[in-house]
Amino acid sequence: MANTPVSADLEAVRDSRPSVGSLYSDTEPLARENAGLGSDSDDIEPGADMALVVANFYTPRSALVAQAALVLTCLYAFIKVAQQPLMLFTYHPTFALVGVLLFAQAVLVVQPTSTPADKAVGGAVHGFLMVGGAASFLIALGVIVTNKLINNGAHLYSAHARLGLLTVILLTANVVGGATQFWVPQVYGSVAKAKSMYKFHRVAGYVVLVLTAATIVAATGTTFNKNAIHISRTVLLLGFGVAGVAVGSGVRRSKFPFKFRRM
Ligand code: HEM
Fold first, then answer.
1. Which of 53, 98, 205, 219 has its C-alpha lying 20 to 30 A from 105's C-alpha?
2. Is the CB of 233 under 6 A from ligand 1?
3. pLDDT tens-digit series, residues 29-41
């Protein structure tokens, strides 16, 4: 074991553990409570769950591909923005890009979680990253609206602006939904009812992730980008395309509220 790479060790631990369905199905209300109490995971060495969850940021290889594609694409867009003089507007794309990176980390960290203890740790890390991501998007939105008010600019005239507003609203609603399902399930009447909503939270999350990427791609069509920033639509489509395929390969279709037909 001493010479084995950490990721291989973690893969071995993950492989040796019971499957998701056997320990923690979406319809098993007690599992979540057990996760909080740790009873189902007492035989797992302390810290292993955090290590497994942290490993999700860079394993399997598709997660690493997603990270590389996202970081490089966001860095490219940020460098283009940073080449403009610093102004109030600068904080709009900057916070939006930070939001995208946090959002992507939040998705990767739960791809997958297997045991109740994994789910408790992964769910909490996911929740905090999503709250951070939502806060970044709301700041980005606040900045651009303020900027428009100061400069008497017309609101929501571009496809980017309209898509962006829709994305922020859906994202915020999904974060509120997920956070209450996870942290205050009583709001839904019972833990079982809260858990039965997870599948909708999950599918909405992936839809919002795609909408977020589409919003940034649409930003290349704004007058300011065309006249000054010059972020390339092709580079964004390529970067987000690669990241999308990589993130998509980690999606567990069985966890969606509908069945996928075999192609
Ligand atoms: C690299 C990233 C981004 C760039 C370069 C960018 C650029 C711009 C520009 C130039 C405008 C002013 C022109 C217009 O209203 O269409 C704008 C407005 C806007 N952006 Fe972005 N944006 C980025 C990311 C985002 C993201 C991720 C969102 C939301 C998820 C977003 C939401 C909005 C909204 C709602 C407006 C309109 C505000 C209003 O009409 O008052 N943007 N953006």
1. 219
2. no
3. 333 333 333 333 4
With a 6 Å cutoff on the Cβ, whether 77 touches ligand 1 is: yes
CATH code, domain carrying 206:
1.20.120.1770
Tell me whether residue 263 is in a domain: no
| Residues, the chain | 263
Residue 262 lies in a domain: no
In which band, very low, low, confident or very high, does the pLDDT at 227 lie, cut at 50, 70 and 90?
very high
Atom of ligand 1 nearest to the CA of 225: 10
Q: pTM of the full predicted structure?
A: 0.83
Domain count of the chain? 1
Please, how many CA atoms are within 13 Å of residue 107, restricted to the half-sphere of its CB? Answer: 31
Nearest residue (by CA) to ligand 1, atom 8, is: 219
Residue nearest to atom 42 of ligand 1 (CA): 164
Comparing CA positions, the residue from 165, 157, 152, 159 lying closest to residue 92 is 165
The token pair at 174 is: 């999904």
- For residue 250, give its domain range: 6-255
How many other C-beta atoms lie within 10 A of the C-beta of residue 234? 9
The answer to whether residue 109 is domain-embedded is: yes
122 occurs within a structural domain = yes
C-alpha pair distances (Å), 245 with each of 62, 69, 185, 233, 235:
9, 10, 33, 18, 15
Select from 91, 92, 139 the residue to mutate for testing ligand 1; criterion: most ligand atoms less than 8 Å from CB: 92
